């Protein structure tokens, strides 16, 4: 019996060793044979090559961006193009753009934006103030970036605006140094006395600009008079009134003017009344000079902001509004020639 017990113990010990050897062959801890071993080229201690580095956009992600542009004209078109180009450069093939134009119909901005909200787009670009106002009224969840918006505090009714909107809104501003624009009147026309300021009363940022420029002009000794129009239908009549009483006309960065520069030019140029403009696109159509920004560059800045929001690198609620860094004095060679004007030193011709 003792020999049998000893033999039994040996057999049991051998069986246990075989069992342990079988368990040790599966490093995943599952049933033997149910989980494959790691590939020979990838050590368990090494990270997978498929892991994306920190702050690198996910190449597999896709996004939809809704673009609401108030009206088609040179400045806004350039801003939209810069925006799209910047996003496509950073996220090639990953973004679908739903680009809509309201044709200067402000209620249409709301219709367009509401469609974006219903489609649950990932981000909204509001190109011009009425588009921004429509977007902020429609959603507090979808990130909104404005561009070609002159003053966000005025556009959104924010008292004592400090530079960051908060919530789901940020963007870029096309605000030019208004005091310098007023000084252009003195630089070009030191002997003038009466300046008429033409603007659309439906655009709050236009009102802001002419109020500031009027104060600056009066400080320089000019008599400055505001001439407002409600839409393009009364622009010609208002322009004729301003021309009859003015030596020089000033028009701010105004979308309705930008879309109808021919009306102003057809009245001002034959009357030999020069126009100083808030931006290059308007000056190209009816002005002698401007101190302007590149709207394409402004759009690119907005696009880079959008990339950071889409990829999660930045939170729109903490992003301050960004401003154009450079302003260039330019003149319209054709109109200056017609009016017999020689541009001051330092101005470049509008291309």
Description:
The protein is of the alpha/beta class and 351 residues long. The protein folds into two domains: 63-174 and 294-320, Rossmann fold, CATH 3.40.50; 178-292 and 328-349, Response regulator (Rossmann fold), CATH 3.40.50.2300. The protein has 13 helices and 13 strands. It has helices spanning 2-24, 74-90, 106-119, 129-138, 152-156, 178-188, 204-219, 235-245, 255-258, 261-268, 280-286, 295-310, 333-339, and strands at residues 63-69, 95-101, 123-127, 144-149, 169-173, 194-200, 223-229, 248-251, 275-277, 289-292, 322-323, 328-331, 348-349. Strands 7-6-8-9-10-12-13 form a seven-stranded mixed sheet, sandwiched between helices.
Q: Tell me the number of structural domains.
A: 2
CATH secondary-structure class of the largest domain: Alpha Beta
> Number of helical segments?
13
**Major sheet:** 7 strands, mixed
Going by CATH, the homologous superfamily of the largest domain would be Response regulator
> Helical content, roughly?
40-55%
Number of strands: 13
CATH topology of the largest domain: Rossmann fold
Tell me, briefly, the overall form: elongated
N- to C-terminal distance? 112 Å
Helix-strand topology string: HEHEHEHEHEHEHEHEHHEHEHEEHE
Strand content: 15-25%
Tell me the CATH architecture of the largest domain.
3-Layer(aba) Sandwich
Mean pLDDT: 87
Biased composition (Low complexity): 33-57
Signal peptide: 1-21
Organism: Lawsonibacter faecis
Keywords: Signal
